[in-house]
Input
Amino acid sequence: MSNDMRAQPSDVVRPRNVGASIKRTEDLRLLTGRGEYSADRKPDRPLHIAFLRSGQPHALIARIDTAVAQASPGVVAVFTAESISGDFKPVIPFSRMANYYATPIMPLASGKVRYVGEAVAAVIATSRYLAEDALELIEVDYEPLGALSRAELAVADDAALLHEEAGTNVLIAREFRKGDVAGDLEAAVVRVGGRFEMTRKAPLAMEPRSYTAEYEKRRDAITLYTSSNIPGIVRDAISESLGLPGHRLRVVAPDVGGSFGSKGSLYPEELLICIAARKLGRSLKWTADRLEDVSSSSQAFAEIVEAEMGFDANGVATSLQADVIGDVGAYSIYPWTCGLEPVQVVSFLPGPYKIGSYRGSVRGVATCKPPTGPYRGVGRPMSTFVAERLMDLGAKALGLDPLEVRRRNLVRPEDFPYRIASGIIWDKTGFLECLDAAAEAANYEQLRIQQADARNHGRLLGIGIASYAELTGIGSRIAVAPGMPINTGSETAKITIDSTGAITAAFGVASHGQGLETTLAQIVADDLGARFEDVRVIQGDSDEVPMSTGTYASRSAVLGGGAAKHASRILQEKIKRVSSHLLEANQDDIEVSEGKAVVLGTDRAVTFKQIAKAVYSDMKTLPVEAREELTATYTYDPINGTTAAATHIAAVEIDPATCFVRILKYVVAEDCGRIINPMIVDGQVHGGVAQGIGAALFEELVYDDDGQLLSASLVDYVIPSAPEVPVVDVVHIESESAVAGGFRGMGEGGTIGAPAAIANAIADALSPLDIEVSILPMTPERIFKLMEQARLKSRGKADE
Amino acid sequence: MKPAKFDYIAPTTVDAAIEALSTANGEGKVLAGGQSLLPLLNFRMARPAVLVDLNGIKELSFIKLRGDRIAIGALTRHREIEQSPLIASKLPVMAAAMRHVAHLAIRNRGTIGGSVSHADPAAELPMLSLFYDATLSVQGPSGRRSVAAEDFFVDALTNCLEPDEIVVELEFPVLQHSGWAFEEVARRFGDFALASVAVSVRRKSSTIDDARVAVMGVADTPLRLRQVEGKLTSIAIDGQTPDRFAELVTSCVSANGDLHASAEYRQHLLGQLAKRAMQASLAAKG
Output
């Protein structure tokens, strides 16, 4: 499936594991039901939580009566905002951004509800069944304030305010400017533009959000098992909110069944479960059901972009402007803020292209919906959709092939590092190489011939291209979310060989499906000189490293991997020092590999087990000063981070009778730097493309004008299943990055490229009918409507 | 999302099941495959006081040839019908439709009695029972009675059963036809139909002398289009027949709209599927 263009020799000497398609260590337990998720924890006599959720989109809470519920069988407590008000400090998603209002995060709605699904009260009972029975006995009197259902309406001067203290429903406003856009657009030979929209989407991890708080009475301590990809951030935030120091609050992300961003923010329920555990002195469990997960986990996209691009006579894009309105939902999220998704749209809009002048303005508007938050690709699925549609519109107007217009505008190898018009700097990455490789793998010219032939037979066949670039593995110089005060630029690895000779590598990063247990062990094995199967990786546990923020923003291979490399090398030096005593050889003559230290050119060797025994147990072999503890800790910061890029090509056919889209061919050529595990990279690309197909063709959270979610179950919220996902051909352009190991982050790319590529393919397929694609998902219903309009229009023309 | 409290009874005979339902006095609900009922219980949209589990009544699971009819026990799983050679040879439209019934895991549990009783307007088996003129055997406290499929479906998710009656078997008359087709469009393979058309015809030289037509997914109940059937027997078969058939179908159905498909789009699909179905039915060499 993959044909690789291999990298230059790496700084890894004779790598054995990095670059190999090693089967994932975690799969045996996950696929045989032996994984341990948060809900699998079995603390002593746990209590269960059920949340009463608002059915009102926007209302004052006039009265809550919990008396009958309190007396219901099995109920231990019923909490409301009032009854826990003294037990925590609100968490504020702070940012230094101008024109930003940080809505405080409360465990339960206080005074007012702001979306359907917001938690209003929590029942704690001996079983979830009894807790849900008691929910029905809580009486809440609401005074409705009218739903703010759409961002375009919520910005009106006379719109009701969701957060009165903010004084506006625009929670964030920002503008990026470079050059004279108006002048350049004026001078452009070809100007193309449109109004583009991606509707609201659910990240939809297979495992819903799930928390188990284990309370330890003897020292008033909590261990929170959470289905989070940011356990370190959760630990720090709850510690601050509850006044519990880190050594009495351990936060562990055990096996986690996917996140896609939905488990990448602090949630009110995480606060509540810790508050309740402490208040009651009991261990507690809560797992969202699918309805709760879809209607209260952070959501994605919900943006409308009015954009325009200007080209000169040579097909060079000279100017770009865009006005983005993001429907960010009812609250800002912690720690990323409500600016995360919409601001990234304008940050990344110029994409991998050398566009001279740029103006991008964005407003994030509060509405009565769950907050939007990080979603695989953050901002870039939308920015890529817009930029790639504009590229195709430009190509059409200029009479250029879509491949050619990209070739004329992509940043070229000699231009790197290149600062795009929004200010982001791309380091040397294979932009053009990806474009060419994708075209070659897709047999692009042949596809065009096939298309022409199909069109002659009245068939609707289309080809779509999308090129993009993303920042990954971001270091301390760049904030993952704009103006955010948390350092997301470093990660720690702590590698230890214990007295039995066993190797444990501990990280704060937290895999939720990425296979870090495998890839980090591959790195450690090579750089330490151990056997892969002897390295145990511990991750996502706040007790293991002093500080970590977790796995998000395509950072763990770069930051965790970089920390692993450095720590492994420090530890290998220690091993060499110890073994030089044991082997009576010069340190420089010792090579460490396969779990042994060997004197080069001899058969004299000591195993890690023998070395550990000499260091820790045997009091005679080594002088006291040579008994160095076999452990190394390293905190790695790539400072800037690195770029990843890809080109996707999709070929689709639309059935004019049913208006269904069938994907005939899908090719991805991607550059994620040195590949640690090709099988995992392919899996990430396949999964990302599958999700991108969901965004392009299927998935849509529909809220009506009263703020009610109409697609709240998986019958109505339609995701692609196996038959809807084609074979994806992946080509790897392995150009090494400048960070440790030469890695680039790659977990998000699939979802960035796929919506745009499929949108362009659909537009291309429908171009004989003069139909453009400006909204995703392109459901059969939408295609039907567009085809009907085109039919009426052409009939109108014929009548004239 | 946990069900409200209910009592659970698992009888091993039909009589015991009826007695349990009678005792429940309208507060009972029958559990067969559970593929529709359990979500309703978990959403607390159904709150029976008593759940009567039929899965222990082994005699309700069978597929038999009875003269010129196929009899299917109410507890027969979708998967058994899908894989039955008898169904494939005698009720080919049903055999073709079964592959569209949800997903394999659901077909392994779901039952024919459960599906027709649930009366989902976008489910295949209620439509097939209309299409084949099935007779449903219904048992209650005073014994068995027969109900024609045509009288069984009252409204969306509503049948004509009394609270203490259950469907025990269905009889499908075998059609001696020359050509047939089952066409369905769903968002994804296995989803509820956006629209579906079943056609079966008997050709006599250049005319159709008997026809069956049913549609589903477009109205509150599945629809048997007898009017269209009647008109088909009076037209000569030519290249225009599929188009004329599509016009006949769409002119006597007014499709509903919902979240997944507007009324206009459903109406469009119905016409397209009708055309495809008639093309396939006429192409068959009977």
Q: What stands out?
A: Chain B touches chain A at residues 1-5, 39, 42-43, 185, 187-192, 194, 259-262, 264-265, 268-269, 272, 275-276 (CB under 8 Å). Residues 179-283 of chain B form a domain with the Enolase-like; domain 1 fold (CATH 3.30.390.50).
